[in-house]
Design brief:
Layout lengths: L2 H17 L3 H11 L11 H15 L1 H21 L6 E3 H5 L8 E7 L2 H10 L5 E6 L5 E11 L4 E11 L2 H4 L14 H12 L1
Parallel strand pairs: 2-5
Antiparallel strand pairs: 1-2, 3-4, 4-5
Helix pairs in contact: 1-2, 1-3, 4-8
Length: 197
């Protein structure tokens, strides 16, 4: 990685942690704030994730650990509530780089995406639907809700990405570092237990 990419990654990491920006937005904002050519190559997501880990380790390790624990507890509650849709946790809450400004991303797998909407309506849960790029590059339904975290004392964004049940077998299993890209409720509960011990 070039010196410019290192600078972009370092600033973008601060924006991810302190402002809760997603990786793409953080990289673009960092590029705009630095005195570098606007066509400079951006760091890849793996490099930015390492920079975020470094930033957390230096500036907020204890605070981030408790916030991550609270987010994982909230994710587990929602996974239990939506268990019939085979939920998996992904994103920063799964990988361990989330802070209180991070959202929770759950992947749901079912035969008909409308089943998830009907379930939320039956539970009197308000949601905002949208279409986003999914695991395999195709657009998928995403249902966004605000969920109260007792531990954090505030609402957290929870995004339910709704996939066809067959996508569970076809989706990528590991990231560029060989780590699982997502985990089911059992895997999440193991993470929670390990950090609580």
């Amino acid at each position: 990685m070039s010196v410019i990419q290192d600078e972009i990654a370092a600033l973008a990491a601060r924006l991810v942690v302190e402002e809760g920006l997603d990786f793409g937005s953080a990289k673009r904002k960092a590029l705009g704030q630095l005195d570098v050519p606007q066509r400079s190559p951006l760091p890849d997501n793996a490099a930015l994730e390492r920079a975020v880990e470094d930033y957390i380790a230096v500036f907020c390790p204890d605070e981030q650990a408790s916030e991550l624990h609270a987010l994982r507890l909230l994710a587990a509650r929602w996974m239990r509530q939506l268990q019939e849709f085979k939920p998996y946790l992904s994103g920063a809450v799964w990988t361990g780089i989330a802070t209180r400004r991070s959202d929770i991303y759950l992947q749901l797998f079912c035969e008909d995406s409308k089943m998830t909407e009907i379930e939320l309506i039956n539970q009197n849960i308000r949601f905002s639907p949208q279409r986003v790029k999914g695991l395999l590059g195709d657009p998928v339904d995403a249902l966004s809700i605000h969920a109260w975290s007792e531990e954090l004392g505030e609402d957290v964004g929870v995004h339910l990405m709704v996939y066809d049940v067959n996508d569970l077998r076809r989706a990528p299993k590991t990231d560029s570092r060989g780590r699982p890209m997502r985990g089911n409720l059992h895997a999440l509960e193991q993470l929670i237990g390990a950090t609580s011990a």
